[in-house]
Specification:
two-stranded antiparallel ribbon; 339 residues; globular; DNA Methylase, Chain A, domain 2; 9 helices; alpha+beta
Length: 339
C-alpha cells in the first residue's frame, strides 16, 4: 500500500557549497534509483518521500534538473505527484526545520481530470495534512515530456534559478507549481517550552566564562582572507552574525548533526537561562523533533549511547509531528482504497 523513504541528503544539503552538491550523480543521491526500482517492482498505491529543500535546486549548474528527473521517472510509472516545502515551525512545532515532502499516488480513472490548483491548495494529501492560506496564486507549468536522459543533458541548462516553487503537482508530463503560504498554527511552541530545569542540567553543558568569548566570536560576523588551494587566488570568506544566545521566545534553529560535544561551534545552540549560558541536552533535542524523552538514550541491550551520538541522531531526524499529520491522511486514503 505504501512505500516510505528518506534518501540521503548529503548531495543536496544546504550544508554543502554550491559547487560540491552533486545531486543524483553523487554517492548518496544515487539511492533514488533504488527507490524507483522498488516502485517498479511493488507498484504501491502511495509513495511518501522526504529530503532537504535544496533538492528542488539541485545540481548547481542545472537548477531543478534532479527533481525534474524524479518527477518524470516516477510519473512514467503511473503516478501523480504532490510536493511541498514545509517549515515545521509554521505548523506549531518548536524547531525551524525545512524539508520537502513528496507524495505520489498511483493514477486511477478520473484522476487526470482534477484541477491542479485544487490538489495543491485544498484536495491533495499534503493540503489536507498541512493546510495552506486561501490565496489567489499564479501557477507556472513546466512540461517534462522529454525522456529522462534528454532532461539530464538539457533541463534548465544555463537557465539560472530552479523553476520549481515551494509547492506543486505533477501529472501527465506537466508539473504545476505555485508559491504557497502555510496556514500558521495559532499557538506555536518555542525553544523555551522544551527546556529542562537548570537543576537537572549536568555541569558539562554550562559554558565556562573563560570560553564565552570563543563562542561569541564564532557566532559573530567576520570576514577572513583565504587562499584557493588550486589556483592560489586570495579571497575573503564572509559569515553573517548569528543570534547569541538563541532566543527562547522563538522556535529553535535547525538541529545539525554536529550539535553534540563541548567544543565551541558556530552552529550549535547556546541558550541563556538564570543559571547562565549552556548547550542543549539530548533530551531537549529529542523534544525539538517531537520524540519521547530519552528516546535515544540506550540500545536494545541497555548499553548507553553517548550524548554526542544522540545529538547526531537528532540532527538526522525528522519532526515527527509533521510525519504524523501526513500519515494520518495517507492512512485514511489507504482504508478507502482497500474497502
Amino acid at each position: 500500500d505504501l512505500l516510505v523513504g528518506g534518501f540521503p541528503c548529503q548531495d543536496y544539503s544546504v550544508a554543502k557549497t554550491l559547487n560540491s552538491s552533486k545531486g543524483l550523480k553523487g554517492k548518496k543521491g544515487v539511492l533514488w534509483w533504488e527507490i524507483l526500482r522498488l516502485v517498479q517492482l511493488r507498484k504501491p498505491q502511495f509513495v511518501f518521500l522526504e529530503n532537504v529543500d535544496r533538492l528542488l535546486k539541485s545540481p548547481s549548474n542545472q537548477r531543478g534538473r534532479d527533481f525534474a528527473i524524479m518527477l518524470k521517472t516516477l510519473g512514467d510509472e503511473g503516478y501523480a505527484i504532490e510536493w511541498r516545502i514545509v517549515n515545521a515551525a509554521e505548523y506549531g512545532f518548536p524547531q525551524r526545520r525545512i524539508r520537502v515532502f513528496i507524495v505520489a499516488t498511483r493514477i486511477k480513472r478520473g484522476t487526470s481530470n482534477l484541477d491542479p490548483q485544487e490538489v495543491i491548495l485544498k484536495k491533495g494529501i499534503l493540503a489536507r495534512a498541512l493546510p495552506l492560506e486561501k490565496l489567489k496564486l499564479a501557477e507556472d507549468e513546466i512540461e517534462l515530456h522529454d525522456t529522462a536522459d534528454v532532461l539530464t543533458s538539457k533541463f534548465n541548462k544555463g537557465g539560472g534559478k530552479s523553476p520549481f516553487l515551494n509547492a506543486g503537482y505533477f501529472i501527465n508530463g506537466v508539473a504545476h507549481t505555485i508559491k504557497t503560504v502555510a496556514k500558521v498554527a495559532d499557538t506555536p511552541m518555542v525553544l523555551g517550552d522544551i527546556l529542562v530545569p537548570d537543576s537537572q542540567v549536568p555541569d558539562e553543558y554550562w559554558i565556562e566564562g573563560k570560553r564565552l568569548k570563543e563562542w561569541q566570536y564564532l557566532k559573530g560576523a567576520k570576514s577572513i582572507e583565504r587562499t584557493h588551494k588550486g589556483s592560489g587566488t586570495k579571497y575573503n570568506y564572509a559569515e553573517g552574525k548569528m543570534a547569541f544566545p538563541d532566543l527562547l521566545t522563538n522556535p529553535s534553529r535547525t538541529i545539525l548533526t554536529g550539535e553534540g560535544g563541548t567544543s565551541p561551534s558556530r552552529f550549535k545552540h547556546i541558550i541563556q537561562t538564570k543559571g547562565g549560558y549552556r548547550r542543549l541536552m539530548p533530551i531537549e533535542l529529542e523534544r525539538l523533533n517531537g520524540f519521547p524523552d530519552n528516546w535515544t538514550q540506550s540500545l536494545e541491550d541497555g548499553s548507553l549511547i553517548s550524548d554526542a551520538r544522540r545529538a547526531f541522531f537528532m540532527g538526522n531526524a525528522l519532526v515527527i509531528g509533521l510525519i504524523q499529520k501526513v500519515g494520518t491522511v495517507l492512512a485514511s486514503e489507504i482504508r478507502k482504497t482497500n474497502s
